[in-house]
Amino acid sequence: MPWSEIIISVAIFLGILALALVIRITLFKILQRLAKKTKVPWDEIVIDYIKRLIPLWAILLALHLSISISPIPPQFLKVINKALLIIFVISLAVGGANLVVRLVDLFLLQKTGVPTRVTLIEIFIKALIYSIALISILHILDINIAPFVTTLGIAGLAIGLALKDTLENFFSGIHILMARQIKPGDFIRLESGEEGIVKDINWRTTSILTQQNNLVIIPNAKLAQSKILNYTLPEEELSLLFQIGISYESDLEQVERITLEVAKELMQTHPLGVPDFEPLVRFHSFGDHSINFNVILRCKNAENRFKLIHDFIKTLYKRYQIEGIKIPYPIRTVYLHSVDTTHT
User: Contact, 298 vs 274, CB < 8 A?
Assistant: First the structure.
């Protein structure tokens, strides 16, 4: 091999590497500076991934161009170029798969506000991209890909049928998160009656921690089709309504005044009360043994509402005893009449 061709090949190789280094240092600094000024974070991710792959791509390009002008036999040159192209496809597939997974995670985070822990979507994306890369490599090697594509299609159909329930739960979980109607940390009540804090929504199930410190695990597909009461939306505060009955002998004005005094004091002093809320008393019916009315309070969160009700009932009962207000209980009066049987 003439020394001039060797020198030219080496010069081309080093020149391309130097150009790639300059591009990586200067151009990418400018692009990163511009990306930081934008409101979307995905451009910084794309630039970062391309920046990592630039050195490898530069080496592959430099080898290709420098070898092309060298007096290497064509049959060997063809093999080397195919090897370089295969390496390029592999790097593109690996880098592209990681990039797409990262962008999808970012998209789900923006849509749901919850960091995704889903691994099935990563497996699906990587399997798809790696399959495309494998087909491309087989094509580069002049291998007939028709049987492989057919087999891949049949295998994909079989896997899809086998994982029908899994995929249904997976996409239901994505739907639940993107709808933002239920998210980890929310206090919810299921249609079946269980209630608790949503601990996790993964690719198959949703976990709910009840107040009994038990974990309820429900498939995402079933949860998406159920009627759910979310105590956290649209805000954590909630109104509490419970019924009280007082004796027919009671002074209703006094009952209303005393009840409101206790309720207002509770709202101001209790850690779960809402200080700026005005409690309400509403009489609504004449019962069999009492006049019934509702008391409406406001609690900071649903999870601890029973503590507020507990303290209110204790305080109100004690105040009723002091004021002489009676809370009746069901009684039955039986009148006995003597029957005169002397004239029969």
Answer: yes
CATH at residue 242? 3.30.70.100
Backbone angles phi, psi at 92, to 5 degrees: -65, -40
Residue 297: phi, psi to the nearest 5? -115, 180
pLDDT level of residue 242 (50, 70, 90 thresholds): confident
**What's the predicted TM-score (pTM) here?**
0.54
What gap in Å lies between CA 309 and CA 259, rounded to an integer? 13
Asked whether residue 192 falls in the same domain as residue 69, the answer is no
Contacts of 238 (CB under 8 A, 6+ apart): 231, 298, 299, 301, 302, 305
Domain range spanning residue 247? 238-323
Cα separation, 287 vs 328, in Å, equals 11
Q: Assess if residue 245 is contained within a domain.
A: yes
Select the more confidently predicted residue: 12 or 87: 87
pLDDT tens across 171-199, in order? Answer: 787 777 777 788 888 888 888 888 888 88
Q: Is residue 173 part of a domain?
A: no
